[in-house]
UniProtKB/TrEMBL annotation, chain A:
It comes from the Bacteria. Keywords: Membrane, Signal, Transmembrane, Transmembrane helix. This is Nickel transport protein. The chain crosses the membrane at residues 125-144.
UniProtKB/TrEMBL annotation, chain B:
This is ABC-type Co2+ transport system, permease component. It comes from Desulfoscipio gibsoniae DSM 7213. The lineage of its organism: Bacteria, Bacillati, Bacillota, Clostridia, Eubacteriales. The chain crosses the membrane at residues 6-28, 40-61, 73-97, 104-123, 135-164, 176-202. Keywords: Cell membrane, Membrane, Transmembrane, Transmembrane helix, Transport. GO terms for cellular component: plasma membrane. It is a multi-pass membrane protein.
Length: 148, 212
């Protein structure tokens, strides 16, 4: 019996020690979950960042209405956390003074990392430009020859 | 200067195609009424190539970086051929370099092509003011070259300013449009000087190029 009382008192004492500690927490319940964020980096074709460009994010279920808007930092970077409940292609537009572009970001679907721009390497662009210029020069030479 | 895809509403893009089509039809009609339309094709073709490459020549004007446009120069030297030349050049720029876009091709062609035709009319004033006078030729060349890009800049400014979506920070976007517009003022002067130098050179070595 004594042992039982000692045990009860011991449990009560431990309870008294623990209970106020919980009271000092003001009932805050902190949970956490990990989410995947998307960082975009916008640059002009000269390599300069689109500093403080305005960013508009469109969710896959409503490509007409902005899901969120924001502003890139001075380096043209912007981070947002897409809703994992909306898998698909999220469109992110960066705009500054009427210049800008849009990049598709696949979320929750198997896809390669998207990148905005032409998708051509510099060498490809140079080669294509050379072909077009050669075509224009050839056209000029052809009509100049006919004149003679 | 090139308005890319996704910036303008669909109605504006369609309107741009309509005006670009009308301007191109008008220019081709004028060309067909010339004595020999084929004569203008070589120089139009070469200047289309120059126009294509010009968008890669960037000039750092703080806080922005602007590139050569040459629409005023094309208007001065090519006359009515400037419109189809600019249309073709813009198409290749959009496809190859992503400068501008296919949905905004009509708007960009209107902005740069119609202003090039206006620059041509300005350059034609030299015949009224003082034919054969090199100073008059240089001044008209400068005004045509600078005026072409200045008018195009005003047109782009107006289009962008009136179509800012409500979900953006309108004040910030307007401020950046102002800054970009002002950055084109030195470019207009540069292109004006360049056009004046070119027409003086052509007048000296091959004056028949400037006729038309």
């Amino acid at each position: 019996m004594i042992n039982r009382i000692k045990l009860f008192v011991s449990i009560l004492a431990v309870s008294l020690l623990v209970w106020p500690a919980a009271a000092f927490a003001h009932g805050v319940d902190i949970n956490y979950q990990t989410k995947t964020a998307v960082e975009i980096e916008a640059k002009y074709d000269t390599g300069q960042p689109v500093s403080e460009g305005q960013v508009t994010v469109y969710a896959p279920d409503n490509p007409a209405k902005p899901w969120t808007t924001g502003k890139a930092d001075e380096n043209g970077r912007y981070i947002f956390t897409p809703d994992p409940a909306k898998p698909g292609t999220w469109d992110v537009q960066v705009r500054l003074a009427g210049h800008g572009g849009m990049v598709p970001v696949p979320v929750g679907v198997d896809s390669d990392v998207a990148a905005a721009g032409t998708g051509y390497t510099t060498m490809q662009i140079v080669l294509m430009s050379a072909c077009v210029i050669w075509g224009l020069v050839g056209t000029a030479l052809y009509f100049a020859r006919r004149k003679n | 200067m090139h308005i890319p895809d996704g910036i303008l509403p669909a109605t504006v893009c369609l309107g741009g195609y309509a005006t670009a089509g009308a301007a191109t039809w008008y220019a081709l009609r004028k060309i067909s009424r010339q004595g020999n339309p084929r004569e203008g094709i070589p120089k139009a073709s070469l200047l289309t190539a120059a126009f294509l490459v010009a968008s890669w020549i960037h000039i750092p004007i703080p806080p922005a970086s602007v590139h050569l446009v040459l629409n005023g120069l094309l208007g001065a030297v090519l006359g009515y051929f400037a419109m189809p030349a600019i249309l073709i050049g813009l198409f290749f720029q959009a496809v190859l370099f992503q400068h501008g876009g296919l949905t905004t091709l009509g708007v960009n062609a209107t902005v740069m092509g119609v202003t090039a035709l206006l620059a041509h009319q300005i350059f034609q004033l030299r015949k009224v003011i003082g034919a054969g006078n090199r100073t008059v030729l240089a001044v008209c060349g400068f005004i045509a070259g600078a005026g072409g890009i200045a008018l195009a800049t005003v047109a782009v400014f107006t289009i962008l300013f009136s179509t800012i979506p409500a979900h953006l920070d309108v004040q910030a976007e307007r401020a950046s449009i102002y800054a970009l517009t002002l950055a084109h003022v030195p470019l207009a002067i540069i292109e004006g000087i360049f056009t004046a130098m070119l027409v003086l050179f052509l007048q000296k070595v091959k004056p028949d190029v400037l006729e038309g």
